[in-house]
Design goal:
Blueprint lengths: L3 H12 L18 E2 L2 H6 L2 E7 L6 E9 L4 E9 L8 E3 L7 E6 L5 E6 L6 E6 L24 E3 L9 E4 L5 E8 L6 H12 L14 E2 L2 E2 L4 E8 L11 E2 L19 E3 L5 E6 L13 E6 L6 E2 L8 E6 L5 E6 L11 E6 L5 E3 L8 E6 L5 E6 L7 E5 L5 E3 L5 E7 L3 E8 L2 E9 L6 E2 L5 H4 L2 E2 L3 E7 L5 E7 L10 E7 L17 H6 L3 E6 L8 H5 L8 H16 L3 E11 L1 H12 L6 E5 L5 H5 L5 H8 L7 H5 L14 E6 L7 H14 L3 E6 L9 H19 L2
Parallel strand pairs: 1-32, 35-36, 35-37, 37-38, 38-39, 39-40
Antiparallel strand pairs: 2-3, 3-4, 4-5, 6-7, 7-8, 8-9, 10-11, 11-14, 12-13, 14-15, 16-17, 17-18, 18-19, 20-21, 21-22, 22-23, 24-25, 25-26, 26-27, 28-29, 29-30, 30-31, 33-34, 34-36
C-alpha cells in the first residue's frame, strides 16, 4: 500500500504551490553572477552509478566530463575514500580511456570496471587494498590529472567488446555480454566474419525479418548473448567463454538500452537468471520478455515466467538465496504498462505479486541485506523518489522526498544515491533505510555553478480534462522582478508516457531556457507517469484529445496564477511525442503561440507506422496495425490539418533517428514551406532521436533561442 502520509504531504504542498526549489548557483541580484547558458550546460560533470564497498566504508562512481576539443564525453571511475563527513575523492582510472560500470568483489578486495584502454572494451580490476586514498577536493575533480593512477589489471582479453558484466559472489566467475552471430560456435568465428564484411567490396545486406534497424543502428545479424567465464587462481579470465543463452534468438541485455540489470547471479554463484525476448518473427510487435534460470557452469535455460505473455525483467536474487524478485507487466504489447514487483520462491516455485495493489510503476529496485525488504524508485506526483517495500506485505514507505533519484546502491545500513532536481544536476547522497535527512557526499559542479545565476521553480496544479487534478512546473527567468513581464517557453514532454518533473534534464534543460530570459511552463498532461496507471493509460488512442485539453487548461491556469508570464509572447517547444504535439497544435491551436519548435515529431501517423521500428508502440497507441484500423491512425493525424497551419515553426530532425524517421521532419518542413509559413529546418546527420554531441547541443540551443527571440521579442 502507498504511504498515505507522504502522498498527502506532497499533494498539500503542490496545492499550495509550495513544491518550490532553487539551484545552488548565485541568486539573482549578485553583481558578478552570469546567466546559465548552454555553454555551461555541456561542460558540467555528470555523476552516476554509485557502488558501495561491502564494508560500507568506501564508494565508487562514474563521472562523465566533456572533452570539447574531441566533441564527446569521457567517463572515469572515482573513489570516495571515506563515507564520513566531507569525504575526499580520487580518480581510479586512466584519463586517456573511458571507464565505467564499477562494482566491488564480495570480499571488498577488488574494484572491477569496464574500460577501453586496451583498444577494446574489456573488464579490468584494481586491488582496493592498495589504493592510496589521497586528499583530493571533490570540487576540483580534474585538478590532479597528472597524478599517477592506481595500477589496474586487465581481467578479460577477448576478441570482442564486452558490453556489460557481473562478478560472481564467490569471485570465481564472470558473466559478460558480447554481440555474436548466434550460428557461430566460438568468438573467433564472429570476429572473422566481421573482418570479412569490413573488407568486402560489396556492401549489400540481405534481411529476412525485422528489426532491420533499431533506434540508431542497422542490424548486422548479431545478438547480444550472455557468457560465463571461469576465473583462474590469479583472478583472470583465461578459460573459454561458455554461452549461457545459446539456442535463444534474443538479446541479453535487451537492445537498445538494456544493461546488467537484465541478468543476475545467485549468492552461492551456482545459478544465473536473465531476461530475454525470444525473437522469432514477431519481435518488433512483442513485449514478451521472460525470466530464465540456467546453471552458472552451463546447461539448458528454464523459462520461469512462460505463464505471463507480457514483460518480465530485472531479475534479482535475495541475499539469502531463497527468492528471485523481478518486475512484471500484465498487458502484452504495452511498453508503458505498470511494472509491479513479483517474488518467486526458488524452492516451491510459488509466485507472490508483491506490489500489485500499489498504483505506481517500478523503475529500478534492489534488495535490502536482510532480504526482508526491497528498495525501489518510481515516478510520483512530479518527483522520482526512492521507496522501501516490505517483502512480506508490500507496504511502501518513502525514503527520499523532492527530486529525481537517478541511480542507487544499497549498503549494509545506508543507501547511496545520485539525485538531481530542476535546480541542480545530480550529486551523490546517503540516507538510512528508514529515510530522513540525506547527507550530500559530492559537490562535483560547485565551482562551475558558483558564479552562475540559476532560477527558482515551483510546482502547481489545476483542474484539467474532466476536472482531474493535473500538475505542472513553472520556472522564473533569470533576472526575475515581480513587476516584470517575461516571454514564455511552453515545453511539452515526450514519451508520451513520461514526465516533465523535478529533474535536471540534459537535453531539454529548463535552466538553460530560463538563463536566456524565458519563463518556462511544463505540464504533466493525461498520459504522464507518476499519477496512477489509469492516468497513464488515458492517452492511448487519444493522443490529440485529453493531452491537448490539459495543455490548454494548464497554460491558462499558469497565466492566471503567475501574472509575470507574458501571454502575448509565447513559444511552444517539444520533442518526440512533444514534437508530435507541436505538429498537432499547429493545426488545432494555431492562434495561441508566436512560434513553434518541433523536434523529431510525428507528422503523418499512417506512414510513421510503416517506417518506425518498434511496432508494438504504434499498434498499442493507435488501436492495432494500420492496415486493420486505419481510422485509428487518422483520428489525430497532424498531416490532415496542414491547411490550418500558420505559426512560424523551427523544425529539428536527425538522420540517425530510426524511432521517428527523418522523413517525418522533412515532411513538416515541406508543408510549412509550401504553405509559405516562416520556417527553418535544423538537420543533424550524426544524431539519433536525441542530440548528444556537445557541439550539436550548443547549435541546437543557439538555433532554438534565435528562433524564439525572433518571434517573441517586443
Amino acid at each position: 500500500m502507498i504511504n498515505r502520509r507522504y502522498s498527502a504531504l506532497l499533494l498539500l504542498a503542490a496545492c499550495a504551490f509550495g513544491s518550490a526549489g532553487a539551484a545552488p548557483g548565485i541568486p539573482d541580484g549578485v553583481d558578478d553572477a552570469k546567466p546559465f547558458t548552454v555553454q555551461d550546460l555541456v561542460r558540467l560533470q555528470r555523476i552516476s552509478d554509485p557502488a558501495v564497498s561491502p564494508d560500507g566504508k568506501r564508494l565508487t562512481y562514474t563521472l562523465r566530463t566533456t572533452d570539447m576539443e574531441a566533441n564527446k564525453g569521457r567517463t572515469g571511475v572515482w573513489l570516495l575514500d571515506s563515507l564520513k563527513h566531507n569525504p575526499t575523492a580520487m580518480r581510479l582510472t586512466d584519463i586517456a580511456a573511458n571507464a565505467n560500470s564499477s562494482t566491488w568483489s564480495a570480499d571488498g578486495a577488488f574494484i572491477y570496471f569496464l574500460s577501453n584502454r586496451s583498444g577494446s572494451n574489456q573488464v579490468w580490476r584494481i586491488d582496493a587494498r592498495r589504493v592510496d586514498a589521497r586528499r583530493i577536493d571533490t570540487r576540483h575533480l580534474d585538478t590532479r590529472q597528472g597524478s599517477p593512477m592506481p595500477e589496474a589489471e586487465q581481467v578479460t582479453n577477448l576478441p570482442l567488446d564486452v558490453g556489460s558484466f557481473r562478478v560472481s559472489p564467490k569471485g570465481d566467475r564472470l558473466l559478460v555480454s558480447m554481440e555474436v552471430f548466434i550460428d557461430c560456435t566460438d568468438l573467433a568465428c564472429t570476429k572473422q566474419r566481421l573482418d570479412t564484411v569490413a573488407h568486402s567490396p560489396a556492401h549489400g545486406v540481405l534481411y529476412d525479418k525485422l528489426f532491420v534497424r533499431h533506434w540508431d543502428t542497422w542490424s548486422d545479424g548479431r545478438r547480444s548473448q550472455l557468457f560465463s567465464i571461469a576465473l583462474d587462481a590469479l583472478g583472470l579470465a583465461n578459460g573459454t567463454p561458455l554461452n549461457l543463452t545459446a539456442g535463444l534468438d534474443g538479446d541479453v541485455p535487451s537492445k537498445p538500452f538494456g544493461g546488467r540489470e537484465d541478468f543476475a547471479i545467485s549468492p552461492d554463484g551456482q545459478q544465473v537468471a536473465f531476461s530475454v525476448r525470444v525473437a522469432g518473427m514477431g519481435e518488433p510487435w512483442s513485449t514478451n520478455f521472460d525470466i530464465y534460470l540456467v546453471p552458472a557452469g552451463g546447461g539448458s535455460p528454464k523459462n520461469l515466467t512462460a505463464d505471463n505473455p507480457a514483460w518480465d525483467g530485472q531479475p534479482a536474487f535475495s541475499p539469502n538465496g531463497t527468492q528471485l524478485a523481478y518486475a512484471a507487466m500484465d498487458r502484452p504489447g504495452f511498453e508503458a504498462d505498470r511494472f509491479h514487483l513479483v517474488l518467486l520462491d526458488l524452492k516451491s516455485g510459488t509466485k507472490h505479486p508483491l506490489t500489485q495493489k500499489w498504483d505506481r510503476s517500478i523503475s529500478s529496485f534492489a534488495w535490502a541485506p536482510d532480504s526482508k525488504s526491497l528498495f525501489a524508485t518510481t515516478d510520483h506526483l512530479g518527483q522520482h523518489p526512492l521507496w522501501s517495500v516490505d517483502a512480506a506485505t508490500g507496504r511502501t514507505t518513502a525514503i527520499t522526498g523532492d527530486g529525481e533519484v537517478e541511480s542507487f546502491d544499497v549498503g549494509s545500513k545506508q543507501i547511496y544515491f545520485a539525485q538531481s532536481t530542476l535546480g541542480a544536476p545530480a550529486d551523490l547522497y546517503t540516507v538510512g533505510f528508514a529515510g530522513g535527512k540525506a547527507s550530500e557526499l559530492t559537490h562535483v559542479n560547485q565551482d562551475a555553478l558558483a558564479h552562475r545565476r540559476l532560477s527558482a521553480y515551483e510546482q502547481f496544479n489545476f483542474p484539467g480534462w474532466h476536472d482531474d487534478n493535473v500538475f505542472g512546473y513553472v520556472m522564473k527567468p533569470v533576472g526575475f522582478k515581480a513587476d516584470g513581464k517575461y516571454p514564455v517557453a511552453f515545453v511539452v514532454h515526450g514519451g508520451p508516457q513520461g514526465s516533465m518533473g523535478n529533474i535536471w534534464h540534459w537535453r531539454w534543460n529548463a535552466q538553460t531556457l530560463a538563463g536566456a530570459g524565458y519563463a518556462v511552463v511544463m505540464i504533466d498532461f493525461h498520459g504522464s507517469t507518476g499519477y496512477g496507471q489509469a492516468f497513464t493509460d488515458s492517452i492511448s488512442t487519444d493522443w490529440g484529445g485529453k493531452p491537448l485539453e490539459d495543455l490548454q487548461l494548464g497554460l491558462a491556469a499558469a497565466l492566471k496564477q503567475y501574472p509575470w508570464l507574458d501571454a502575448d509572447r509565447m513559444c511552444a517547444l517539444g520533442g518526440s511525442y512533444g514534437g508530435y504535439m507541436m505538429n498537432w497544435i499547429a493545426g488545432q491551436w494555431p492562434d495561441r503561440f508566436k512560434c513553434i519548435v518541433t523536434h523529431d515529431g510525428i507528422f503523418d501517423t499512417r506512414s510513421m507506422y510503416y517506417s518506425t521500428e518498434e511496432l508494438w508502440f504504434a499498434e498499442w497507441e493507435n488501436g492495432g496495425p494500420e492496415y486493420t484500423n486505419p481510422a485509428g491512425y487518422t483520428k489525430f493525424n497532424p498531416a490532415d490539418y496542414v491547411s490550418k497551419w500558420k505559426t512560424p515553426t523551427l523544425v529539428i530532425h536527425s538522420q540517425q533517428d530510426f524511432r521517428v524517421p527523418d522523413t517525418q521532419g522533412i515532411s513538416v518542413f515541406t508543408a510549412l514551406q509550401r504553405r509559405g509559413i516562416p520556417s527553418e529546418l535544423l538537420y543533424f546527420p550524426d544524431e539519433n532521436h536525441w542530440v548528444l554531441k556537445p557541439a550539436n547541443s550548443i547549435e541546437w540551443y543557439d538555433t532554438t533561442l534565435a528562433w524564439m527571440n525572433r518571434w517573441t521579442s517586443k
